[in-house]
Structure formats: structure tokens, C-alpha cells
Amino acid sequence: MTFAPLNTTWFSLIGLLWAGYFFLEGFDFGVSVVTPFVSRDGLDRRICWNSIGPVWDGNEVWLIVAGGATFAAFPLWYARLFSGFYLALFLVLLALIVRGVSFEFRARVDSPRWQRLWDVANFGGSLVAAVVWGVAFTNLVLGVPLTPAGRYEGGLPGLLHPLAILGGLAALFLFAFHGSLFLSLKTTGGLAARASRSALLTGSAAVVLLAGTVAWVAADGRPPLSGELPGAVPLAFALASLAALAGALVLTAAGRSGYAFGLTGSSILLAVGAVFGKMFPAVLPASNRAANSITIGAAASQHTTLVVMTVVAAIFTPLVLAYQAWTYWVFRQRLTRPPVLLAGEAPPSSRPGGGGMPERPAAPAAGGTRRRAGLPLHSRG
């Protein structure tokens, strides 16, 4: 117990890494899931993709760091997760790979069929990843049946019980709400209005599903573990998460999307806090027998390893956070649809004093009709 504070510190830090991942990747997932429902044409879809295009891969770094920190600080936890939850984690990995490839490949071929293929891949990968993460973390709250050696042998079917599926749906709609608000803040005009309506719908569903999950988890007890936090602590985090989500819905209805986005992010952070508070002091709680749980102390690396990790994290974490904050600042502008030009009319950027990089004028359309210029997306501060 001499080094227990450092073990607990790294357990908390890993919780913060997961919270940061879900806060950032959550709106990525959400934008991808709601894009088919808020887009009216290919240009709308491209704007939706461009809203997260510069940041999605940086957001996934949080997942890599969370996994790496778990491997280094709690190798037994990492080993048990990847052996018992192998199929679930493989499914998430496959979904993230498909999703990542879609961002890179969609614009490679100028073909509607090709682009629709990757639209579907991006939607499916984001939806599957969001649901599976919700299912996995709901199971971590409830605990899973473990052998005396701390192994889970129930496979993927054992994780797909009704309460876990409810938690997966709650995560999906929470991310969709979060992403809809992000999209409403990054776009203008009709697309922003449709994103706001999507936020109202997905937010309403998220509040109901999260409330149901919290109530069901609170009523579904598992064997108490020595040293665990009083039940009121994780419950307070969960209720605060639900209150923040409900507040975001009210602000969305009032047209205050910026404040609402802050509250959906707070709801995600508090929900992850509730999960890790409920797990403590276990990294993998057992639902069948408390003695089978894997505790923080049993799973932790040696003290020297944790000290080195702490020094490295203290040096590099501020640099990474500063770089990511700078990235969001650079890409803070809203995205707008290109202007509609008269036949033969040059884009504003190519006119004298128009500003920006000059572009070729649009080709005249037959019959003098109006046509959309094939311009890149414009930004507006």
C-alpha cells in the first residue's frame, strides 16, 4: 500500500484520457451519424465531412494514449481486457479502421457511387464504434463474471445483455446530440438549421436513454468490494451528467448552441467520471464474486515504471494539449456553401479586390441558367 496514491493517480489519469477521447471523438462520431439526415445534397455532405476533417485523426490520439497508458501502468488490466473482450475490441478496431479509411478514400475518385460507398462506411463505422463503446463501459460499471484468476470467459454474447444495449444506445444518441451541436456551430444557413433540429431530436432521445441507464444501473447491484467509494459518489456524477444533458437540450431549444455544446461535453466528462468512480478500486470488477475482481493494486506496474510515466506525462502532456488547442483555433471558422453564380460570372475571389486565392471562372451554363460553381468550401469567421 506504500505506493497506492500513485496507482490511484494513474487510474484517475486514464479516466481523464478516456473522458477527453469521448468528448472529442464523440462529436466526430455524432457528425458522421447525423450527416445522412441533415444533408440535402452532395455539397452538404462534403461540408459535414470538412467540419471534422482537420481534427478527427488528432482526436483519436487520445484513444491511443489511453490504451498505451493502460498497457504501461496496469499491464494485467490491459491483458485481461484484450483476452476477455477480444471480439468487442476487434469490432471497435474494425469500425475505426473503416471509418478512418473513408476519410482518406472518399475524395480519391470523382464518382457518385464511389462517394456513396464511403459515406456508408463512415456512417456505419461511427455508429458501430459509438454503440460498442457504450456497451463496453456499461459492462465495466456493472461488472462481468470473472473466474478466480480474474478472467472473463463469456465472450461477446455475454456482454450484449439488455442493460448494456441500453447503455450503448444512450452513448450513440449522446454523441449524436454532441455532434449535431458541433455541426450547427461549424456551418451556416439551412444546414446549420437542420443540425439544430437534429440536436433537439437526438438530445431528447439521449436524455431518456441516459436516464433509463442510470436508473437501471442504480437498481442493479453487484457484490461490494472493499475500499470502494460510497454509492452516492458515482451516482452524483451520473445525475450531474444527466442534468447537464437536460440543460443542453433546454439551451438548444432556446437557440444557444454554443452553451449547449459545452454542456453536452460536460455530460460526457461526468458520465466517464461516474463509470470510473463506480469501478474504483477495481480496474475490472466482478459481477459474480467480489474476490474475483482485479483491483488497482493487483494490476499496477512497479513503482519505478509509474514514476517514469509520471515524469514523461508531466513534460509532454502540456505540449500535446497546446498543439491540439492551436489546431482547433486555426480551423475555428464556420463553413459555408459556395455562392451561386450567374452564367459566365467569375467567383468573387478572382475579381479585383475580391481577396483570397484566385480561381477560374465557372463555365457558362446552357440557356443562361444559374449554376453552382465548382468551388472549394469558403470559411467565414
Description:
The C terminus is likely disordered. This protein starts with a helix and ends with a strand. Helices cover 69% and strands 4% of the residues. It is globular, with a radius of gyration of 23 Å. With 381 residues, it is mainly alpha-helical. The longest helix has 35 residues. Helix 1 crosses helix 11 and helix 6 crosses helix 11. A two-stranded antiparallel ribbon has the order 1-2. A two-stranded antiparallel ribbon has the order 3-6. It folds into two domains: 333 residues; 41 residues, no CATH class.
Summed up:
By secondary structure, the protein is mainly α. Helices cover 69% and strands 4% of the residues.
Order of helices and strands: HHHHHHHHHHHEEHHEEEE
Task: Describe the oligomeric state of these chains in a short phrase.
Answer: single chain
Strand content: under 5%
Structural class: mainly alpha
Q: Walk across the major sheet and give the strand order.
A: 1-2
Mean pLDDT score: 86
Unreliable segments of 5+ consecutive residues: 341-381
Q: Nearest-angstrom radius of gyration?
A: 23 Å
Main β sheet profile? 2 strands, antiparallel
Q: What distance separates the N and C termini? A: 54 Å
Q: How many β-strands, per DSSP?
A: 6
* Helical fraction: 55-70%
Task: Tell me, briefly, the overall form.
Answer: globular
Number of domains in the coordinates?
2
Can you count the helices? 13
